[in-house]
Amino acid sequence: MIQNNERFFLSASVLSLPIKYREVIILYYYDGLSIVEISHILNVNENTLKTRLKRARGKLRVLMEGREVHG
Q: For the whole model, what pTM was predicted?
């Protein structure tokens, strides 16, 4: 039950991200695509995608840590 709650919160947190961060998280982690593949799909430079992925992870980390404090 707790694990399902964590998954739900993580999914909700991903969906709350701005689209440019959300799409790279979904394509990389949920769809299992590589940075190169995502680059071709979105027509975005690979280094830009790496930066977006890093920033998205940071935003998710802050959201998850906030939940631990409040939840």
A: 0.83
Confidence of residue 4 (pLDDT cuts 50, 70, 90): confident
The torsion of the CA quartet 9, 10, 16, 18, rounded to 10 degrees, works out to 170
How many domains does the chain divide into?
A: 1
Q: Give buried/exposed letters for 10-28 (b at 16+ CB in 10 A, else e).
A: eeebbeebeeebbbbbbbb
Residue 20: what pLDDT? 96
Q: Is 70 a member of any domain? A: no
Could you tell me the residue range of the domain that residue 7 belongs to? Answer: 2-63
